[in-house]
Amino acid sequence: MRAEFISGYRKYREAAAVNLKAQLAWRADVVFNMLFTISKILFAYLLWGIIFRQRDAVAGFTFHGMLSYYIISSFLSQLELSGGISGEISARIRNGTFSKYMVLPMNIQGYFIAMEAGVVAFYLIFDFLAAAVWVFLFRIRFAFTGEPLVMACAALMVLLGLLFMVQLNFYLGILTLKYQEISTFLMIKNNLVALVTGTIVPLALFPETVVKLMRCLPFYYVTYLPSMLLTGQCREEAAPGLLILAAWSGALQLVIGITWKKYRKRYDGVGI
User: Fold this and answer.
1) pLDDT per residue over 202-260, tens digit each?
2) Region of 106 on the Ramachandran plot (φ > 0 left; ψ -120 to 50 alpha; else beta)
3) The model's pTM
4) Which of 38, 56, 85, 231 is the most exposed place for a label (fewest CB within 10 A)?
5) How far apart are CA 119 and CA 113, in angstroms?
6) CB of 37 within 8 A of CB of 131?
């Protein structure tokens, strides 16, 4: 049993390592990814700089606290790169080359999780550097929690959030086994993610009724809540947030299993 576990672990570790190295072939993507991170923070700096000229605090944020939130949320949102999974799966199912993944000596979903881990590990360094440059360049009094337990909860929530997004994009991709076109599903997902993750505007600025509704959705816990926790806010939501996100992830995994088992027989692969 232990030998099988070690063998399986090595397979997924190798898949992650291969995908990490593959990112070196896409150096332009690294540059643009850093530019997107910088553009978000620059936008926040200019916008909130104007707003905070006339007030000291907005929704519990100081100017430097708001910039700290944007730096952390931009950093986390740029790590979430699983959106291409659904497109990759959908395209390969439609052109008959999804067999490439079906013949791998490992679980297909596990492969995509390992692939995402390798990509995230690669971009982690560059996104961190981009965030650090902005803190130094604009002399931001960076607001960051000093509570180890809160930091641990936030880190675990980030990992769960990344896992959930891989699950979601994998699920949307395999829906192509039933629906030839999944662009509508992807559009709905992209709009929800853009709004509820709080990367555009902190959700603390929304009416409380709206925020309560968003707390029922998993996207609230992917970027927004970890960012708030790391800036020293919403501490009371840490434990419930982990439970809610874990419940969503577990439920989605059940749905993935049912969907894959039901529709995989419809796939007519023509090659790899």
Assistant:
1) 888 888 898 898 999 999 999 999 999 998 888 999 999 999 999 999 999 999 999 99
2) beta
3) 0.85
4) 56
5) 10
6) yes
Alpha carbons 221 and 132: distance in angstroms, whole number: 24
For 61-73, what is each residue's pLDDT tens digit? 888 888 888 888 8
Residue 33: pLDDT over 70: no
> Tens digit of pLDDT for each residue in 168-197?
999 999 999 888 788 888 888 888 887 888
- Short-list 166, 155, 164, CA closest to 226: 155
Q: Show me where the domains of the chain are located.
A: 2-266
Who contacts 116 (Cβ-Cβ below 8 Å, separation ≥6)?
Answer: 81, 82, 85, 162, 166
Place of tokens 């992807």: 186
